[in-house]
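Batch manifest line 216
LIGAND: zinc ion
JOB: complex structure
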Amino acid sequence: MQKALETNNLTPKELSRLIICKKCATLQKKIVLENNTKAICTTCKSTLYRKHYDLLDKSLALSLSTLIFFIIANLFPIVTIDLGGTISDITLSSVFLTMFEEQFYFSAIFSAFVIFLLPFTLIFLFLTLLIFMKLRIYEEAVKKMLVFLSALLPWNMVEIFLISVLVAMVKLIGYAEIHFGVSFWALVLFVLFDLYMSKNISMIALWGLKENIYGK
Ligand SMILES: [Zn+2]
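JOB STATUS: finished
ARTIFACT:
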């Protein structure tokens, strides 16, 4: 890697060989990495990107597991609340359906988006493009999906939802008996896998993988 660069008068090809550091916003020159190594910023020493030995297979296994946890999290109650003999099962979908019935339309739509629509779209996109890459088919579609994925990722806040569920549960302790269902643990695993994936599989690595598979 070399020192922070100036971008004046660079051609698109030269620009494509550069990468911006997310921490300190300086431009760095991309280098070819060996397997299981990482490139660090010359200015602030933070990690720019990594090269994993079997990124495609690992990502496929991870996203398949994430999808399974997501399905389980949606199938059964996340918690059962016993409020003085009145027992209610809370499922993920009941969270936004109840808001809708109570006419909190904006909150209902927003939580349906955060809890269901966005996570599902992300895993679906991720899994589909990985399968396409594995089979070496539909390069154009993979490209479009990668662009769409980059646009959606910043909106991924399912872990915030999990934290708010936990806060709500803590507030209920003392008033009601709370039993965590299988979907709660599936939701926890889903969030952990989701966090692991977003920490370890960068968009840059996926673009690199695409270039390796289909050529530049
Ligand atoms: Zn930096």
